[in-house]
Specification:
This protein is 2% helix and 39% strand. It is mostly beta strands and 339 residues long. The strands form three sheets. Strands 8, 9, 11, 12, 14, 19, 20, 21 and 23 form a nine-stranded antiparallel β-sheet that branches. A hairpin with a 5-residue loop joins strand 8 and strand 9. The longest helix has 6 residues.
Amino acid sequence: MAECRNFLFTNEGVTKLSSGINAGVTSISVSDGSVLPDPETNQIATIVLRDDDAGKYEIMNITARSGNTLIVERGAEGTTAAAWAANTPVVNSVTAAFFDRVRDGEGEVPPPDPDYGDVVLLLQIDAFGNMADNSLVAQSVDVIGTGVIDTEQTLFGRPTFNNPGSVTQLQNYVEATGPAGTYQFAGEFTLEGWFYIDSQKNNFNDFFTNDIQFPNAQYYQIYYTAIALGINTSSSPAGPAFSYNVAPPYGEWFHYAITRDASHMTRIFINGVSQGTPDGPRLGALGGPDVTLVRIGAGNSTEGDNGDSDFHFGEIRMTKKCRYTADFDPPTGPFGVGE
């Protein structure tokens, strides 16, 4: 049986080679080693070097770090050790083979999600900039507009998605589409994700919306402003809207979740902390039976000054079950999947 080694990650694990290396060295120097993990016994940190112009990449495992010097295993996961020039980016990343390696006893992963059977959307971004749909039932996921994968602004060692926003609605966002009713939440639900907002936003900005024309009974909007977190919905009696006079964090990654429990009480959490007295009971469905889509970062086309949201996001998960009814510790790694 292979030695069990735990994987380490940091949220800001991006640096550069301070000097060029050949394919044979196992000690490399980087410009800032402090942004990378410092493995101990039975721990490794996976780093990825890539040169898109040359069409090459290499995965290495850091086994030890002293200051800016890394001791590494070269050519990991079937990649080929190569020569790399000074200033090549070095990214502490979850690789595409991460879950496979863990399944085979090679390291630590998030535990299996016991509620995976209720997951309708799970978006995750791998180390190579692929937006992976790991939903229980595959969805159609499209990037609309000019949003891009960002390898500098990382979360859990992975690149993230940079949604540039716009002053005009429905220009830049990510859309997931499934069968009718997929994004209707008639009972319990948890809508959550990791977000990074660079600076204060003064208008309405959406985490999630289905953009069904207001006041159609299928419409909902999970939003934030400079002074509030809230939900708008035209469904009755799921409505009317409610909000908390709390601004989201700026300039840092945070976990956002909105939930409704079996008693139909609705809560909003930031980094696992409830933001106010639960609202409800909201007995009606969030959205109607014909809802086929959800949009992440899209402004609603009928809501005045509500342009598309300017933020980064990492992991997105939508579940037809209430995961959180009280304060909790937010995830410390990628969302898990089923057994």
